[in-house]
Amino acid sequence: MELVLRVQGFLVDASLPPLRRDQIPTNTHCLIDLKQSVTITGLGVQPFDDAAAAFSAHLKGHHLRIWQPERANAHLTLTFGNRYLTAAKFSDNEPHADLSEVVDPFNVLWPHLSSQVHLQENVVEYWQCCTQSTKPSFKRIKPDAIMPGTMVELQVAFAVAKLGRHDYIFLPKLHAVCILNRVVHTDYNTSIIKLLSARTVSPLKKMKRKVGYDDDNDKENVDTVEAPQRRLKRLTLDDNQMEVSKV
């Protein structure tokens, strides 16, 4: 069985396409392990921490192996990813997806493929929420527009796989990343510029840029985007420390 959820938070880290030549393993058997991933945090917001804790619950009548959230700067974080490839023998006539447009535009992966395929299940979509009007709209973007400090909403699926007779394990899979707001990223850059002007930090200390929503404009989805976003937008970064804004 599979459960699809939407999770909002601030992007802490990301490993996103396109693939570069130095990312391709020399051992072709390791190609199947290539994946993209993102890590988000709620900066201590209680609903995010409660949701992270809920992921380590138990299935009724069976034991679900605990999936422990990690921490960054004392805040809980969640990491979700998706492999670029699937073994052809497990494809089960699933629809194939275009590998060249986003994942492999430099054609560094395709020549090495033999028993691996890129399926629709391996696809991650990238979107940005535009809120110039009272009703948000969504547009597709390239993954290199997504960077740490950005407020995002992730669409993730949780497949539950059985291990042994009674044990189960969560297999989280990333399906979409949507930029909601860049306020923290902007605050961080403003703070760094002020510090650089005062010559209190090294000029070499800068942010590391790493790099489906189809007209998702009904009222239910508008509420799911706006309500948590209002709580998260009150958070800011001050002098490189994560704290809740007093505003």
Topology readout:
Blueprint: E1 2-15, E2 35-41, H1 46-54, E3 63-64, E4 70-72, E5 75-83, E6 86-87, E7 116-117, E8 125-130, E9 137-140, E10 151-163, E11 167-181, H2 183-197, H3 219-232, E12 235-238, E13 241-244
Parallel strand pairs: 3-11, 8-11
Antiparallel strand pairs: 1-2, 1-10, 2-5, 4-5, 6-7, 8-9, 10-11, 12-13
Describe it.
By secondary structure, the protein is an alpha+beta fold. The chain contains three helices and 13 strands; from the N terminus they run ββαβββββββββααββ. It is globular, with a radius of gyration of 20 Å.
Strand content: 25-35%
What general outline do the C-alpha atoms trace?
Answer: globular
Q: What is the ordering of alpha helices and beta strands?
A: EEHEEEEEEEEEHHEE
Radius of gyration: 20 Å
Extract low-pLDDT stretches: 199-211, 237-247
Helical percent range? 10-25%
Note the gap between the termini: 43 Å
Q: Mind summarizing the main beta sheet? A: 9 strands, mixed
* pLDDT averaged over residues: 77
* Total of DSSP H or I helical runs spanning 4+ residues: 3
Could you give the count of β-strands? 13
The class by helix and strand makeup works out as alpha+beta
Defining key terms:
247 residues, alpha+beta, two-stranded antiparallel sheet, 3 helices, globular
Short description:
Helix content is about 15%, strand content about 35%. With about 250 residues, it is of the alpha+beta class.
